[in-house]
Amino acid sequence: MRLAFMGTPDFAVPALLALHAAGHEIAAVYSQPPRPAGRGQSVRLSPVHQAAETLGLPVRTPARLRTNADEHAAFRDLNLDAAVVAAYGLILPAAMLDAPRLGCLNIHASLLPRWRGAAPIQAAILAGDSESGVTIMRMDEGLDTGAMLLSDQVALTPATTATTLHDALAAMGARLIVTTLNQPVGPGQPQPEQGVTYAGRLTREDGRIDWSRDAAALDRQIRALTPWPGTFTTLDGQVLKIGGAALVSAPRSAPPGTILDDALTVACGQGALRVTRIQRPGRGMMDAGSFQRGQPVPAGTVLGS
């Protein structure tokens, strides 16, 4: 088929590579514009942009689409069979949704209608869901409301992190979109009205650890929000990033946030977490043992202050 591919982050790269390897003609790749990143704020291409250039594919990086009539016309003039969208980051107006012969197909990282919205991977872990997956969806003007074409699922375990789930779903999405395009693309199945949930955009404040919460919920928070936006606590006004933790039995009761031993076991509202990876400002993330050998935080210290 003659396709456009529209995506920006790492999640979308496997799908682009799979479509190219399957022999589809990719007339154009759309991605978010290059932006400053890192400590030096040097301008960087998005992961999809980099992959497209490696494949020798033309890339377009419009900053906006809704009222951009020139982009609408350019997209229409591509004479596409379909457009494949994966975490692109811009809303497609009706003029673009309706332009390809078969419409625009979205690779969405959830089992719709659960977790429509911006952060479905993190939301599934935060909520303690037993499974997640990918849905290939025919796009309409709603927020992830289009008809479903194909889906698959993966079990979530107590060891699942945002990173491992991201990678699994990215690979799954690549497989499913190739399968979808290798068969007649029908109208799809409408999403059920029941079971709709939304995963809003994450902010840094979502990563603040409230030690009065249940240890199991905090474990999910750390697994879901690492590496982005990251989880953190404070000590004497200093931010400590928490990169990993494990559920443990509390050796004794203590106020939430209290460090119970030299292994950085922290009392929670119910149960306890043993911090396994931690970072001070200006330092790299390190294992708890190395952290305690450098500038130890003694038992009895209360985090979150």
Structure notes:
By secondary structure, this protein is an alpha/beta fold. It folds into two domains: 2-199, Rossmann fold (3-Layer(aba) Sandwich); 205-302, Methionyl-tRNA Fmet Formyltransferase, Chain A, domain 2. The chain is built from eight helices and 16 strands. α1 packs parallel to α2 and α5 packs antiparallel against α7. The radius of gyration is 22 Å and the shape is elongated. InterPro entries: Fmt, Formyl_trans_C, Formyl_trans_C_sf, Formyl_transf_N, Formyl_transf_N_sf, Formyl_transferase-like_C_sf, GART_AS, Met-tRNA-FMT_C. It comes from Gluconacetobacter dulcium. Residues 201-295 form the Formyl transferase C-terminal domain. GO terms for molecular function: methionyl-tRNA formyltransferase activity.
Rounded radius of gyration (Å): 22 Å
- Taken from the alpha-carbon principal axes, the silhouette is elongated
Q: Please state the structural category.
A: alpha/beta
CATH topology of the largest domain: Rossmann fold
State the end-to-end CA separation. Answer: 58 Å
- Total DSSP E strands: 16
Alpha plus pi helix count: 8
CATH architecture annotation name of the largest domain: 3-Layer(aba) Sandwich
> What is the mean pLDDT?
95
Largest sheet properties: 7 strands, mixed
CATH uppermost class of the largest domain: Alpha Beta
Binding site for (6S)-5,6,7,8-tetrahydrofolate: 110-113
InterPro entries: Fmt, Formyl_trans_C, Formyl_trans_C_sf, Formyl_transf_N, Formyl_transf_N_sf, Formyl_transferase-like_C_sf, GART_AS, Met-tRNA-FMT_C
Keywords: Protein biosynthesis, Transferase
Family: Belongs to the Fmt family.
